[in-house]
Amino acid sequence: MKAAVLREVNRPLEVEDVETDQPGPREVLIRTGATGVCHSDLHYVEGKYTIPMPVVLGHEAAGTIEATGDQVTYVKPGDRVITCLSVFCGHCDRCLSGRPNLCRRPDVDRSDSEPPRLRQGGTRITQMAQLGSFAEQMLVHEHAVVKVDDDMPFEQLALIGCGVTTGIGAVLNTAKVEPGSTVAVVGCGGVGLNCIQGAVLAGALRIIAIDSVETKLTLAREFGATDVIDASGGDVVQKVRELTGGGVDYSFEAIGTKETAEQCFEMLAAGSTATIIGMIPEGVKIELDAGTFLRRERKIQGSSMGSNRFRIDMPRYIEFYRQGRLKLDELVSQRLRLDQVNKAFEDMKQGNVARSVITF
Fold first, then answer.
1. Annotated catalytic residue within 39, 43, 141, 143
2. Does the annotation count 43 as an active-site position?
3. In what order do the strands lie in the sheet with 118-120?
4. 232 catalytic per annotation
5. 18-38 residue pLDDT tens
């Protein structure tokens, strides 16, 4: 099969021939229909996060089951599925306590003594998040997919696999935003726009979108923001306090920088919560005034893939879309071929897109 392979940090991905093994007992082989290009992928290209190379990036995808292992009963060839990087074992303490997104992941990957799922000759090829969706096929554990109906395009289904689930889930599952509350979202890319949509679904009274790109602020209004702040003008925290009379009940960081994470904390009202979604580079420390934790009971927390239970959450998001309560079509800024994946990264860095989608 053809796959886009990253071999060195800060080098373009190259489309190469990669060999795919046969499915193991609990594995499924997927023909990729579409995959979104996420900022998380770019972090690995730029070396902000480390991963064994060579690697096939990509983790936001949908496709069709081509083959299954002999112990798989959940799906069959021909079924349409969304993949999710929150592959779960189903039997560790985190899975059994209702937090499968935090699974310890025993038994969901092949051991070093087994043949690799992907290879080139004798070289093992890493799959990002045990998926590797920048490829014509994906060989994954059966607990990395959710079966869906076949009445939606792959492009929209793929975006549910990460950006939608991460953004909406952070609001509904991690922060549990209450109706009538005030919300600020810092960063209006794919994940941030879905935070805004999540706040609308949660019944937030006021939703403040913050970004430095005018086109993204325009999109934010279309997705449900009641107010927008152009971050390029500075004084973001003060502007939020002035808009709200003292701060927001919930803030969400969807960029992945130290500065914006600290801003999200500082713009909180007393007793409120900041949720950090963006992938802040490894080793970066966030600096906060410890006294405000005690005196004002403000909190800061992380959100991993929207604290999802993806086999429950994703079908619900599909139904929201069918009812016209969730925007997916508007998230797709451009459709590209696999050999245009580097263009998708350049457009992302320029802030020109909500989501680029590679179609097969």
1. 43
2. yes
3. 19-20, 118-120, 123-124
4. no
5. 999 999 999 999 999 999 999
